[in-house]
Amino acid sequence: MITLYENLSVKISKLTTRTYSTSFSLGIYFINSRLRDAIYSIYGFVRIADEIVDSFDGFDKKSLLYKLKRDTYESIECRISINPILNSFQQAVNRYDIDCELIETFLQSMEMDLEKVHYTPEKYQKYILGSAEVVGLMCLHVFSEGDKKLFEDLKPYAMKLGAAFQKVNFLRDLKDDYSLLGRTYFPHVNMDQFNYQAKTEIENEIENDFKIALIGIKKLPPTSRGGVYMAYVYYNSLFKKIKKLSAERVLSERIRINNSRKFGLMINCMVENKMNLL
User: Fold this and answer.
1) Are 93 and 76 in contact (CB under 8 A)?
2) Entry pTM
3) Exposed/middle/buried for residue 180 (C-beta within 10 Å: 0-12, 13-18, 19+)
4) d(CA 72, CA 185)
5) Domain containing residue 27: CATH number
6) DSSP labels for 234-251?
7) What is the pLDDT of residues 157-199, one digit of tens each?
8) Comparing C-alpha atoms, which of 197, 158, 150, 181 is closest to residue 61?
9) By the 8 A CB rule, do 133 and 162 touch?
10) Using alpha carbons only, how large is the chain's radius of gyration in Å?
11) Would the pLDDT of 24 be above 90?
12) What domain range includes position 212?
């Protein structure tokens, strides 16, 4: 009977992923079927933690995040949780031997979002590490399937890809983060004077991250390469769209890729993957 609950747990993480992110859902679809559940489970966990600090206004976010942290470690130790998202996450953690230090680093970055932090370069790097780079490493544990040498070889590339995704998110969400949440992640950037030069400096940093990350994507096993490449293509397309816009527009609206464009990107990735063009 426990199998029924385990399957339900994964389905809830899968539904969470599809509800919050069509782009990641498309990417996961291109991953080998035996690995998909674990990636859905990682995303479900990351998403619920992010929702606590971003969306649960009017509630005690600090207490809720602490409860999530406590329940997460308990579920990993006991190998079960009555919270379906945590139950599917602990399955992935235990099956693929995901380092709990990565989970701790991620949760520390979520704690940073509970306060209005003035982001120095050091705090900025710490946040990027916790909110994005270690999430990439959690996924790499799944993709490498116990091959420790492969994990270590691809580790720096996975971190760069996570960093690139997060920085693109920062630019995409600049308006809401600044206007609604009072957050400014980029160090040395005065949002009241956000201009072409500041935007270009950030974009150069992201471009370098993407360039390094692509080297690692090409070295991934066939079981995960297509899916990760799909996510890369989507985010790189979003990044290119942001680059074409003025600093004023980026600060005044949330930039998106429409569904028809996403579908086109998916078809292109399918062709490239089929023809082994990666």
Assistant:
1) yes
2) 0.92
3) exposed
4) 27
5) 1.10.600.10
6) HHHHHHHHHHHS-HHHHH
7) 999 999 999 999 999 888 777 766 777 888 878 777 888 898 9
8) 181
9) yes
10) 18
11) no
12) 2-274
